[in-house]
């Protein structure tokens, strides 16, 4: 039996603070802060909520993974993925309240990790507590909670492979989700891939007097010309031979789903304050299934106050390539290096930094239909959209590809959540609505 929105809203409003200490831990993987305290709290909390198994995995290195398993009232099993690490709160002076003390204002909770991702996990804990007091879970539930998502999830594949037998399930519900700018819940079936590279070049043994620019080419100019050779400015096409070879074309059904998405170019331009036209004539298609090349930053020469008239000998740039879910990120460095050499830039060296493959769930999987049908009941027929894959990256492939499961993101966020920024927040009514949807998903799945 499913709970009503009124029942769950009342229950959640009375009990979310039972778990609010999760937000008070400064769990910042990038700074190696708060890891053990958070692990200890989660292990204790899962046990208190009736988990039949709670384990702390640290056999594959990196920050530990918390695994918890709950018995349900059916033979169906749902695997939940969450992460317990957050971004730093800096700059703290931009927050209107303590970033690690949940503050409720105007129906919103303001705190670091409000949505990404502690808030999503916290309200799933609230639902577990509700089930514990109201007849048990509809399905078997497994929780995989890692602590390195904000720094690249570099150990997720190792842990998933090592504990594959324990992670068997029928479907995966991903870390969370959000309503779009139009107020529709975005149900997302995967994530893009990513490859991050560094390009570097030296043009001399030492920096030279800038008067010698009459005959000596500087490293920054050399790098700028090399970068310019990799992309066609007219249509945003990447001029790296072979980079499109492993892009799986969209099916007619996938294109149809993309065509239903809410996307207004003028609103995007206005909200972001863009000063240049959009690069793409088909932005939704490109967001879902085309690789990108982005310059994250360029480092060269003198950057301090005043001037220093030198011709710099060294320059570097960091790039990221957002990839279609079918693409292999480990190919990118070799392709870029080969292209640079073919373009006459053999002195510019490409170095692989980090990357992740993407993953996209089969749009015809019955679990996807169930999640969408229940969303229509909770949010209304036009109150949700189905997104083939997130435009960002994440380790969904470790579950989708290795475990051969559909991976779906649903959750409690919204477009004004300020994820990763100051005053990160969630709206309480969104959290209550997300709980009702999740309860309906699990109850129907059990049937």
UniProtKB/TrEMBL annotation:
GO function term, MF aspect, one: metal ion binding
SUPFAM superfamilies per the UniProt record, alphabetical: Zn-dependent exopeptidases
GO biological process annotation, one example: proteolysis
Domain Peptidase M20 dimerisation: 190-343
Top-rank taxon: Bacteria
Alphabetical keyword list: Hydrolase, Metal-binding, Protease
Keyword Hydrolase: yes
Coiled coil (residue ranges): none
Protein name as annotated: M20/M25/M40 family metallo-hydrolase
